[in-house]
């Protein structure tokens, strides 16, 4: 059974300090001067040490997926036929994150742990060490459409926090964390979730649509002229899980080096290049079609729920102002025209 506590900000900082002795603490934060423009900050996920490190005013540019699936990761080192697994930070980890992102990580779990005969060991070794501290999210932000995607709620958390400015309310669901919060005042249950977003979409059921005709529809040509294939929507998306492999040899000795995996994305040039020079989706609109269908149709047909969680980051970061909810709505209109509904 859960217990609820109220702590002052100072008391919460002391709890973070205690937790930090046993856990690696990750959460939304600013990275000063690391933005795309000179002197600009960027927001993403990284280590935090105190309440003031947490970025709570908005949505982060990058998602928490990099806590479990780093941008670039050395998997192992090779020397002739000898393989040595790469070390990783194996401390137990707490991630502070919002409900949509917990649901996003559920999608990553599906791909990395349940989409094949064996779980991905590099993802699994991090994932099994992680516990979630939910950041209560009652209003969302302008581009969020998590309610439409049924990703606004989650009960998959060890603790949940309401940051009130002058104090913090905490629901402790995982009893192993109760001693850390024992000094707080008992409080009433409080946790709430956003129930309506400013942006909403109705995801069309494409099961009766002629997918061949949809594949050829002119809508995708328009995206060919707008999308510049920068890949920002892929890298900021909590549910995009594609990667490429690189064997990096040390010096001239090809038998000595390391194997890395590095994020890749369906919008980025070269993603579908084959030996011999063929590329399956050379046009940027074809890539938009692939991403859209994967996020709101194909994944659900395989796993029973949509891949997209409606975090809205792809809208926030697109330099061409391409709106994913608008694309979904347009698909809905096309689907109604095709099925005469
Ligand atoms: S497709 Fe866009 S809205 Fe959906 S999960 Fe990815 S970034 Fe978020
Ligand atoms: S962020 Fe926008 S322009 Fe860049 S690849 Fe995605 S849809 Fe295309």
TrEMBL record:
GO function terms (MF aspect): iron-sulfur cluster binding; metal ion binding
Pfam families registered for this protein in UniProt: Fer4_22
Keywords: Iron, Iron-sulfur, Metal-binding
PROSITE patterns tied to this protein: 4FE4S_FER_1, 4FE4S_FER_2
Domain 4Fe-4S ferredoxin-type: 217-248, 299-327
Transmembrane segments: none
Gene3D superfamilies named among the record's database cross-references: Alpha-helical ferredoxin
Name under which the protein is recorded: Anaerobic sulfite reductase subunit A
Organism: Oligosphaera ethanolica
